[in-house]
Design brief:
- By secondary structure, the protein is mainly alpha-helical.
- The protein has one domain.
- It has 3 helices and no strands.
- Helix 2 runs antiparallel to helix 3.
- The termini are far apart.
C-alpha cells in the first residue's frame, strides 16, 4: 500500500492536470491585487509565481518533446516510403 505522501502527490497531479494557463494567469493576477491591497504577503505571491513558471516550463518542454517525437516518426515513415 502507498504512503500518504504518494497519495497526496497523486491528488496534486490530478488537480494540476485540470489547471490551465488561463487559470494560473487569473490566480497570479488575483495575487498581485491582494499584495497591493495588503492582504497577501509579497513572498507568497512570489512563491506562487515561481511555481506557476516552473509548471509552465515543464508543460512546454513536454509538449515540444511530443511534437519532435511525432515529427521524427513522420520523417522515418516518409523515408521508408522512399526506399521501399
Amino acid at each position: 500500500m502507498g504512503s500518504t505522501s504518494e497519495s497526496n502527490d497523486a491528488r496534486a497531479k490530478q488537480r494540476l492536470k485540470q489547471l490551465e494557463l488561463d487559470d494560473m494567469d487569473g490566480a497570479l493576477c488575483r495575487a498581485l491585487l491582494d499584495v497591493l491591497d495588503g492582504t497577501l504577503e509579497p513572498g507568497v505571491a512570489t512563491a506562487a509565481a515561481s511555481v506557476a513558471r516552473t509548471i509552465h516550463a515543464v508543460r512546454s518542454a513536454t509538449e515540444h518533446e511530443q511534437r519532435i517525437r511525432a515529427l521524427e516518426e513522420r520523417l522515418e515513415a516518409t523515408a521508408k516510403g522512399w526506399t521501399a
